[in-house]
Structures are given as C-alpha cells and as structure tokens.
Design goal:
- The protein has 83 residues and is mainly alpha-helical.
- The protein has 3 helices and no strands.
Length: 83
C-alpha cells in the first residue's frame, strides 16, 4: 500500500472514530459507544503496527516507560492524604 494512502486512511479512521465515540451518549446507547470505542482502538493499533515491524524495541521501551509512569502516578495517588 502507498504510504501516503495508509497515512490518510489511518488518520481519518482514528480521528473519525474518536469524534464518533465522543459524540455518542453512553446512557442512551452504550452498545454503540463501546463499538465505536473498539473501532478507535483497532484503528490506533493498525496505525501503530508498521512501527512495531520496523522497530520492535522502540515499542517495548515505550510500553515499559508508560507502565513506569502510570505505576508512579498510581503510587502517588494511593499514598496521598485524603484532605
């Protein structure tokens, strides 16, 4: 596939499904909200897939750093005083 076509399709798919997910009210139609959220996650995964095939160590390092940052934020939240 042409790299510019892939970039355009993944960009439109990701942003379009993001706006669709934000526009749907989860109290009125939760099934559709979850379906568009799953579509957004799939589009994001497909747009990141070529990066994994080119540099798998980059994705592993980013996942490790992300888990460290989220873990640190969670630890601060767990140990914070209530007032």
């Amino acid at each position: 596939m042409n790299k510019w076509a892939f970039l355009g399709v993944s960009l439109v798919g990701t942003i379009g499904s993001l706006f669709a997910t934000k526009a749907i009210d989860d109290r009125q139609n939760p099934g559709l909200k979850y379906a568009t959220w799953a579509l957004f996650n799939g589009a994001m995964g497909l747009s990141l897939a070529p990066v994994y095939f080119m540099q798998p160590a980059l994705i592993a390092r980013a996942a490790l750093m992300t888990s460290g940052v989220v873990g640190a934020i969670s630890a601060v939240g767990m140990t914070a005083r209530r007032e």
